[in-house]
Amino acid sequence: MKNRFIKFILASVLLFLPFSAAQAFSIKASETVHIPEDEIISENLYVTGQIITIDGEIAGDLIAIAQTINVNGRIEGDIIGVAEEITVNGQVNGNIRAIGATINLNGSVARNVNIFSETTILGPNSKIGWDLTAAGNLLESAGHIDGDLTGLFGRLLVSGEVGKNIKVKMSDNVLDGALIISPEATINDNLTYISKADAQIDEEAKILGEIIKKIPSTQAGVNFFEWLWPTIYSIFGALVVGLIFVFLIKEPAPKIIKKIKENPLRSSLYGLILMFTLPLIAILLIFTLIGIPLSLIIFVVWLVCLYLAKIFTAILIGDLILKNINKKNTPKLIWSLILGVTLCWLLFAVPYVGWLFSLISAWLGLGGIFVYASNQSKHL
Fold first, then answer.
1. Are 73 and 90 a contacting pair, CB within 8 Å?
2. Could you give the CA distance from residue 112 to residue 132 in angstroms, rounded to a whole number?
3. Which residue, 112, 134, 164, 251, shows the most beta carbons closer than 10 Å to its own?
4. pTM
5. Angle at CA 181, nearest 5°, toward 70 and 212?
6. Which residues pair with 181 in a beta bridge?
7. According to the model, what pLDDT value does residue 174 have?
8. How many helices (H) and strands (E) does the chain have?
9. Alpha-carbon torsion, ordered 34, 42, 75, 117, to 10 deg
């Protein structure tokens, strides 16, 4: 059983190797990762560690997971980051999409910034070329935003310039000083906010459009637009990952889907067992010194497979629907992906019951991945 489990882990890792050959990227993993000022990485950089510092140049995207991420250099593509603290002092010619406890932006971003953070600080030298969309407890905007500022906040302080509109919803839990427009602020279009309290707008602040206050709806239930935006974002992310398997890693996807379809009950059972046993094994291995690297590998593979599992299940559902609509022709994998992911992710987002659909789809897909990886391990 132990030998089969190790083979499953290895086969799962090998499943992703064709992507390395198809896409140019570098991977760095260390406690401290530093790209010096004179270094140029001519491709995408995938990096993980405790402290990541980029002083050099990256010609592609920066995808990073760490405790602290510092970007002082130049990024030609996007920054996609998850960290406790993220600081960008350099130049980003693409987008920033980040999640963190604290996010500091003091440099320039050519396109959009999409962030979820407890605290976000846009310094006076910061510049966003397109729109800022954010959600968090506190946003201080002292820099320049060429486009719109949109989001959900506990508190918002604007002392910089916004090229177009401000459209925000303030938390119902913060009443006093939730939205403050300082005397240095310039808003070149409308200020529209949803809040129980009035905004504190200094008389010297420049607002060229209208000031529109809306009272929060007292109707019970989930606000549709607050529900829709993150749902669309998650659908888009799943489609991007799914497209990688459709176009770049062509072999595993149809075989995994076939395994799920052949015996859904078996797949669900395997998936249920793996969902709970893998993290438990990973935690136990942490307490053995030599088992820490394997523990990290197991945990990463578990997280990746959980996400992919739902995508594979979604493709199967899309395939079954399309075959039922048109029984004469076999649907292309890409259309099954688009239909299945859209429908499934909408179901996953349904309040109160969506988690159950998500759980079942994860079990099905995880079981299919296990059966496929087990078969592949026989050739190791």
1. yes
2. 6
3. 134
4. 0.60
5. 120
6. 158, 201
7. 64
8. 8, 24
9. -60
Q: Which of 111, 106, 161 is nearest to 131 (CA)?
A: 111
Report CA Rg, the chain: 23
- Identify the pLDDT of residue 105: 98
Q: What tens digit of pLDDT does each residue of 10-54 get?
A: 444 444 444 443 446 677 767 799 999 999 999 989 887 789 999
State whether the Cα torsion 334-335-338-343 is positive or negative: negative
d(CA 355, CA 37): 46
Q: Which of 226, 166, 168, 172 is closest to 197 using CA atoms?
A: 172
Number of CB atoms found within 10 A of residue 288's CB: 10
The alpha carbon dihedral of 225, 229, 230, 236 has a sign of: positive
Q: SS3 string of 217-270?
A: CCCCCCCHHHHHHHHHHHHHHHHHHHHHHHHCCCCHHHHHHHHHHHCHHHHHHH
Q: How many CA atoms lie within 13 A of 122 on its CB side?
A: 27
DSSP 190-224: -EEEE-SS--EE-TT-EE-S-EEEEPPP--SS--H
Domain ranges of the chain: 26-103, 112-216, 225-377
Q: Is the pLDDT of residue 241 over 70?
A: yes
Residue indicated by tokens 């990746």: 304
Q: Is 271 helix (H, G, I), strand (E, B) or coil?
A: helix
How far is the C-alpha of 210 from the C-alpha of 165, rounded, in Å? Answer: 10
CA distance 167 to 199: 13
DSSP characters over 126-159: -EESS-EEEEEEEEEE-SEESS-EEEEEEEEEE-
pLDDT higher than 80, residue 252: yes
Q: Is 287 helix (H, G, I), strand (E, B) or coil?
A: coil
Please give the structure tokens belonging to residue 76. Answer: 């030609």
Query: In this structure, what are the phi and psi dihedrals at residue 218, rounded to the nearest 5 degrees?
Result: -90, 0
